[in-house]
Write a structure and sequence with these properties.
mainly alpha, single chain
């Protein structure tokens, strides 16, 4: 252990950084390989939009997905490399994660981390069960957001440390690109420069000057936008795509509508007349609990604990200006989480990943501290702790890159079987958008594939126009299979494809 740590500390720092980036890209490629073509339902929208962009049908592409940077990039790779749309998205995925790893490690370096800290950061990043194990395998715009979100942090820290115009411009460019992947990034773009006003150790005039410098490109683009709307009567906020969600005049009402409607239900149906005035407070406390649980689960419990220790010993472990920037980003991330859960009553881990990256970066410094103390401290407990953390993270990496369990690609298997079975091209009914994609059926925005659509087709009799049915089932909804058996006696099951652990399945029925 001691000799290994010494070798790491003596390795050329730039070479080590390059090796970590290469490993990150190989990891991303492996995550794509073990999918064997599996995609997330959202990917279908991006792919269809990219196909339309590739043939010049921009208007139709924007109707499919109106925040088009990710589909544009897929279409560009497709045109340059002649790869298919899905393969082009996979190439982008590898490049994005390489950039994410570069920026993740660069932030660690800017915060005072040396070779050992960089390796600790790579272990934490690569062993993440959410970022690598769950999302990296999906072909989504999130990976592009990660890449440019982390890159924007790199340049903002550099600006905050040296106040150079070049870094200010690059910070804004990166943050704008991150916003074009996920609209939530606009809060970092708008609010992070406030740190210069609040925390910079200088007179007010100097703080205002550097604040405006960090917003220079944003202010220029805002001025251009205002002038464009003023001089062109056919332009309005409605032409801004998803930006209209941010610039709506009814922002407060949009954010609180569901909160107050759900509070009314809670007040009437749960708390009763004696406690009804605590409904809003009760919901807000629940939101706080959900945010804490999501932050821990997305970051990882061990990483979360190490991040807490880094904050506790921040003066000894991390460079002060970098810590200020990371703290500001964490606060903005918490604000994002609070706004999202209040508006839509959903708290997906995808909305927590901005905070998770910050916590993982902080955890890196405590992890490196443990590794360092294990080689220099005579107490055995540090050595055992270091070995335990390394083993845990190594096993997590192995878990991430292992081939998927049998049944993972059950939808693709079902689609491939039907293609082979249905040689006469008889009409097929399916209730899942991904099955439609796997069967190479034309894209349809109006298509509704879910159980309500199945039930409606049964009730109006249109389902009987199909010779083959592909119906998704779940162990949580056994009554659905019963309904099909009762309502469609002329159909019989001929094949079943089960998901891993057999919680979900696709059943193929044939008309007798």
């Amino acid at each position: 252990m001691n000799s290994l740590i010494k070798k790491i500390e003596q390795s050329p720092i730039n070479t080590l950084h390059a090796v970590i980036i290469l490993l990150a890209m190989l990891l991303a490629a492996q995550m794509q390989y073990i999918q064997h073509g599996w995609i997330n339902p959202d990917s279908i929208l991006y792919f269809e939009s990219a196909k339309l962009i590739a043939v010049g049908q921009w208007k139709e592409a924007l109707q499919v997905w109106n925040w088009p940077l990710y589909p544009i990039l897929i279409a560009t790779v497709h045109k340059i490399t002649f790869l298919g749309i899905q393969a082009s998205a996979q190439v982008l995925n590898v490049l994005f994660f390489g950039l994410s790893a570069f920026s993740f490690i660069q932030i660690i370096r800017l915060a005072g981390g040396k070779q050992l800290t960089m390796v600790a950061g790579a272990l934490i990043l690569f062993s993440s069960q959410y970022i690598v194990g769950d999302v990296l395998e999906m072909l989504m715009r999130d990976e592009g957001f990660w890449a440019f979100y982390l890159t924007s942090i790199v340049f903002f820290i550099r600006f905050y440390q040296g106040f150079k115009l070049k870094d200010a411009l690059l910070w804004q460019v990166s943050a704008i690109i991150a916003t074009l992947f996920r609209i939530e990034a606009i809060t970092y773009l708008v609010l992070l420069p406030t740190l210069v006003l609040v925390c910079m150790n200088a007179d007010l005039k100097t703080r205002i000057r550097y604040f405006l410098t960090s917003h220079s490109l944003n202010l220029f683009l805002a001025l251009v936008l205002v002038l464009a709307i003023a001089f062109h009567g056919d332009l309005s906020v409605k032409n801004l795509g998803r930006l209209q969600e941010v610039f709506t005049l009814n922002l407060y009402e949009e954010l609180t509508r569901q909160l107050f409607s759900h509070a009314a239900i809670m007040s009437n149906d749960v708390l009763g007349k004696y406690l009804e005035e605590f409904a809003v407070q009760g919901l807000l406390l629940t939101f706080i609990y959900v945010m804490i649980v999501k932050a821990i689960s997305t970051t990882g419990l061990i990483n979360f604990i190490m991040a807490v220790f880094t904050v506790k010993n921040r003066s000894a472990l991390i460079e002060s200006k970098s810590f200020q920037v990371l703290t500001a980003i964490a606060l903005i991330s918490l604000m994002n989480m609070a706004l999202i859960i209040t508006k839509v009553f959903v708290m997906s881990s995808r909305y927590v990943v901005g905070l998770a990256f910050v916590l993982m970066i902080l955890a890196t410094f405590q992890f490196a501290n443990i590794l360092m103390r294990s080689s220099s401290h005579p107490a055995k407990k540090f050595q055992w702790l270091a070995i335990g953390l390394i083993v845990f993270m190594t096993l997590s990496i192995v878990k991430n890159i292992m081939p998927k369990a049998e049944g993972y690609n059950y939808m693709q298997d079902a689609a491939a079987w039907v293609k082979t079975y249905n040689k006469d091209n008889k009409p097929v009914f399916y209730d899942e958008t991904r099955v439609r994609y796997y069967l190479n059926e034309p894209f349809s925005r109006d298509a509704k594939f879910n159980w309500p659509a199945v039930k409606s087709a049964i009730e109006n009799g249109s389902i009987k126009n199909y010779d083959i049915l592909m119906i998704s089932h779940s162990k949580k909804r056994p009554e659905q299979e019963v309904l099909i058996a009762e309502q469609l006696p002329e159909y019989s099951e001929i094949k079943r494809f089960n998901q891993s652990k057999e919680k979900k399945s696709i059943v193929i029925y044939r008309k007798n």
